[in-house]
Amino acid sequence: GENVEQHPSTLSVQEGDSAVIKCTYSDSASNYFPWYKQELGKGPQLIIDIRSNVGEKKDQRIAVTLNKTAKHFSLHITETQPEDSAVYFCAAIEDFGNEKLTFGTGTRLTIIP
Amino acid sequence: EPEVTQTPSHQVTQMGQEVILRCVPISNHLYFYWYRQILGQKVEFLVSFYNNEISEKSEIFDDQFSVERPDGSNFTLKIRSTKLEDSAMYFCASTTQRGSSEAFFGQGTRLTVV
Fold this sequence. Notes:
The complex is a heterodimer.
Chain A: E1 4-7, E2 10-14, E3 19-25, E4 32-38, E5 45-51, E6 56-59, E7 62-67, E8 72-77, E9 86-92, E10 102-103, E11 107-112
Parallel strand pairs in A: 2-11
Antiparallel strand pairs in A: 1-3, 3-8, 4-5, 4-9, 6-7, 7-8, 9-10, 9-11
Chain B: E1 5-7, E2 10-13, E3 19-24, E4 31-37, E5 44-50, E6 53-57, E7 65-68, E8 75-79, E9 88-95, E10 104-105, E11 109-113
Parallel strand pairs in B: 2-11
Antiparallel strand pairs in B: 1-3, 3-8, 4-5, 4-9, 5-6, 7-8, 9-10, 9-11
């Protein structure tokens, strides 16, 4: 089955700086890679996703890049703000044959004012 | 914005008791899921449900677990005889597409088994 590794487990950045979180996956058939933000006491919220037919996707201050050959994908947050502080999870799925998302272990991002 | 709603937000139960966790998925969604997150660990898949039947389940989802969609809106997870290790945050999710693409998660139910 799929295995997703995520690094780092914790990340602190100064407000205004950029944050990068990286994930690797094991199943080359995986074709959909969402990123979730989980704030304290809340459920995971989808913030951006990418499919294997593109290499990069951007939504305002958030971007995701995918390297299919190396089987890794990354979340980039620019101009970080205090409200970006949360736990971020990457996930992967081969969504033609499977039902379940396989999640990474999570990154606790802290933005220092 | 439509959202997945879960009740209760927190459930405390004695070991061996039955619990039912409830979810109201987004109304036009067709695929429904339960995930759980033990404190400090990653989110784990439990079960997926489509067209009134289970479409996939994990090894965690043993005979003590069951799901149903009794009235076309609620989606429930039942744990027949709870164990201490069932203590976790349980998340319901729904989507219009198979394979958890663009899945929307509820806020979760924290289950504490004592």
